[in-house]
Amino acid sequence: MNGGIRDGTSGGSEWAAIDWRGRPVQVEYQWIAPERRSAPLVVFLHEGLGSLAMWKGFPQQLCEAGCFRGLVFSRPGYGRSTPRAPDEAWGVDFMHRQAREVLPAFLEAVGVSEPPWFLGHSDGASIALLYASMFPQRVSGLVVLAPHLFVEDVTIQNIEQARDAYQTTDLPRKLGRYHDDPDSAFWGWNRIWLDPTFRAWNIEKELETVCVPTLAVQGLNDEYGTLAQIHGIAARVPGTQLLELSDCAHSPHRDRSDDVIAATLAFVMAAGRNP
Predict the structure, then answer these.
(1) pLDDT reading at 175 higher than 90
(2) 154 by DSSP, 3-state: which?
(3) Are 10 and 28 in contact (CB under 8 A)?
(4) pTM greater than 0.90
(5) How far apart are the first and last CA of the chain?
(6) What separation in angstroms does the CA of 263 have from each of 191, 270, 273?
(7) From 273's CA, which of 39, 97, 119, 186 has a CA 20 to 30 Å away?
(8) Are 223 and 154 in contact, with CB atoms under 8 Å apart?
């Protein structure tokens, strides 16, 4: 096991075998500070174009600051995990399926039996919320960065721009630093978000069964969503804490990492689950 995450490499990674969508899938993952056996465990869930490597140093920094253990992985189709099959198209319920099928199978495969904390970004934040709504007894708490509850016009506009950039610039090469198959990662995410049927996607109803401590973070300059997203969480999940960050776009853990780390540590300690 490796205590750190390297930028753009698979060094130190391990692979967990799960069955999903009728075929065996290898899931890339890394532990952070597994020797801290009695410390809280934080599971990191990446964004729609993210991967284990794309988190860069943030999980390590957070775990060192809080004396946590960490578990970081690439969902199927991303990073060094098994890519999508060539004919595999994700449906409107793809985040529900990640929460209901992939996440439980992965956690079981790597031996997680305790209720961890989940820190999710963007699509990963939505998956964390869905998992907590489905399995409330398996979650200690949530930190959700730039989550999606519903589809906004600004989101679609910028995902359309991302599609154009992928087709006309060197974006595929750049994503190749973080994904063995950048086409698998990009088109799996982009095509479903731009599918007209996805405009009706909404998980506000599911939030009514989330009953764990929740910290919701949003940048005021987020190009993929507005404050309506985290305000929607606060309206439905009792006791939700909000953190609205200026000079911050869609990635608070990169744009305002010190503030996110400080807020997360204070949040975990206030919930009575500090090391």
Answers:
(1) yes
(2) helix
(3) yes
(4) yes
(5) 21
(6) 34, 10, 14
(7) 97
(8) yes
Q: Report the distance separating Cα 45 and Cα 132, nearest Å.
A: 13
Rounded (10°) angle between helices 58-66 and 257-270 = 40
Task: Give 217's strand partners.
Answer: 145, 243
Burial class (CB in 10 A: 0-12, 13-18, 19+), 57: middle
Burial, 185: exposed, middle or buried (Cβ in 10 Å; 0-12, 13-18, 19+)?
A: buried
DSSP reduced 3-state for 37: coil
What are the structure tokens assigned to 59, written together? 């999980």
Residue 82 has which token pair?
A: 């098994």
The whole-number pLDDT of residue 275 equals 37
Asked if pLDDT for residue 7 goes beyond 70, the answer is: no
Contact between residue 242 and residue 230 where contact means Cβ atoms under 8 Å apart:
yes
Residue 243 clears pLDDT 50, i.e. is over it: yes
d(CA 92, CA 176): 26
What pLDDT score does 256 carry? 98
Cα 45 from chain centroid (whole Å): 3
- Tokens representing 154 are 């600004």
- Taking the C-alpha atoms of residue 168 and residue 40, their distance in angstroms, rounded to an integer, is 44
| Element at 195 (helix H, strand E) | none
